[in-house]
DNA sequence: GTTCTAGAAC
DNA sequence: GTTCTAGAAC
């Protein structure tokens, strides 16, 4: 499927690049799911989080550090999440740098929501800790991933349980103000 | 990953 | 009748 390789073109596009050096690039997500949403990618051909080993630690620590730096510089004081999807749809390892308002017209589905707010989202710190301790990332199983994505909607900041996506989006607006 | 839309849910 | 979601896309 051609669309799974979309990020390989996007990361080369200077119009999307926020930062670019010899081993990593940071781009704006083309369909941001929050007010600020960047992707940190290595130039090295690492297809997915499943391919990571201890040898990637220096690179992952740099991606983490640069991601936090960009969030500080471009985040306008917003709070951020840093991490990876357990089962990404697109090729090339990419770390999400996403502001925790989730205020975006591109946030449309339950899958979108649950991919950032359940165990489907693997924080960057955990990826690094797993590689340091066991030399690989301990990921949820395929069935655990599927359950995470189908979990009933829940607000990430309070106990509110929205009945559907429009209700969630109305509720999120209250946390922003 | 998105777009589109049938039919479920209300 | 309208809103919303889930699944196909050759």
UniProtKB/TrEMBL annotation:
Q: Which residues cross the membrane?
A: none
Main localization (coarse): nucleus
SUPFAM superfamilies given in the database record: HIT-like
Per the record, the GO terms for biological process are: single strand break repair
Q: Has keyword Iron-sulfur?
A: no
Alphabetical keyword list? DNA damage, DNA repair, DNA-binding, Metal-binding, Nucleus, Zinc
Looking at the UniProt record for this protein, which Gene Ontology cellular component terms does it annotate, in alphabetical order?
nucleus
Question: Where found in the cell?
Answer: Nucleus
Q: Which residues form a coiled coil?
A: none
What positions does the domain HIT occupy? 4-107
Do you know which Pfam families this protein is assigned to?
A: DcpS_C, zf-C2HE
Source superkingdom: Eukaryota
Name a GO molecular-function annotation: DNA 5'-adenosine monophosphate hydrolase activity
Protein name in UniProt: HIT domain-containing protein
- Native organism is Nezara viridula
């Amino acid at each position: 499927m051609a669309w799974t390789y979309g990020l390989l073109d996007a990361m080369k596009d200077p119009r999307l690049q926020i930062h670019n050096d010899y081993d990593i690039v940071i781009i704006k997500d083309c369909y941001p799911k929050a007010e600020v949403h960047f992707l940190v990618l290595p130039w090295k051909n690492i297809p997915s989080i499943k391919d990571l080993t201890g040898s990637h630690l220096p690179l992952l620590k740099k991606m983490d550090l640069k991601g936090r730096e960009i969030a500080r510089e471009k985040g306008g004081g917003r709070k951020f999440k840093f991490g990876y999807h357990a089962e990404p749809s697109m090729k090339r390892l990419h770390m999400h740098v996403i502001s925790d308002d989730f205020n975006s017209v591109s946030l449309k589905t339950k899958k979108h929501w649950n991919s950032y707010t359940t165990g489907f989202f693997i924080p960057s710190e955990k990826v690094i800790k797993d590689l340091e301790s066991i030399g690989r990332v301990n990921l949820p199983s395929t069935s655990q991933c599927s359950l995470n994505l189908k979990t009933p909607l829940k607000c990430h900041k309070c106990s509110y349980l929205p009945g559907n996506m429009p209700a969630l989006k109305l509720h999120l607006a209250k946390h922003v103000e």
